[in-house]
Write a structure and sequence with these properties.
Length: about 180
């Protein structure tokens, strides 16, 4: 039998994994649990046993769009050479903001609901992406993860580029990134 000291009103026993997988943590004598990653509608291994809606979006602004010719080098160390005429957008989000450097020439954003592949090496403050065929202009939103129209980029996709997991990506989002809670 478990007896509580009179000074203890609340007993915390579980994080979101416990809430999701072990319902006794929601029964007396336990009175509290941490929602953790569940607050974003996510579970690290995607085995949700309770219905949640994915609610997390990470976005940045497009600051410039340029029409570039074939043969143009993009990114530090010229890691991308354009093979065809391309529209390249500069997005104000880089590795200092939490985008894994491994996403260089491998990741993608969503711009106006369409996938825009990362082109070139990600820099500290900016990333370039190919918006050829996408109606994109400075001030438009680039979705790093989350939804845009009918498409979605999962946090796990970004984590896979890093060889890591969702928690690592979420904890890596820099302090200069504005948080908006709705």
């Amino acid at each position: 039998e478990f007896a509580l000291p009179a000074s203890c009103r609340d007993i915390h026993f579980a994080a979101f994994d416990g809430i999701n997988n072990y319902s006794p943590v929601l029964e007396p004598p336990f009175t509290m649990a941490r929602c953790g990653i569940g607050i974003y509608g996510m579970m690290a291994d995607d085995t949700l046993n309770i219905p949640l809606k994915k609610s997390l979006r990470l976005t940045a602004k497009i600051v410039a769009v340029r029409e570039l010719d074939p043969g143009t080098a993009v990114g530090y160390m010229h890691t991308a050479i354009l093979q065809k005429p391309s529209r390249i957008a500069v997005v104000s989000f880089g590795y200092a903001d939490g985008l894994p450097l491994a996403a260089s020439n491998a990741g993608r954003f969503l711009v106006n609901g369409k996938f825009a592949p990362v082109v070139g090496r990600i820099s500290m403050d900016y990333t370039t992406c190919d918006v050829t065929g996408i109606d994109a202009k400075p001030g438009d939103e680039a979705v790093i993860f989350g939804s845009s129209k009918d498409n979605r980029i999962e946090v796990s996709e970004v984590a896979a580029l890093r060889g890591s997991h969702d928690y690592d990506v979420l904890c890596s989002v820099g302090s200069r990134t504005e948080r908006v809670y709705i």
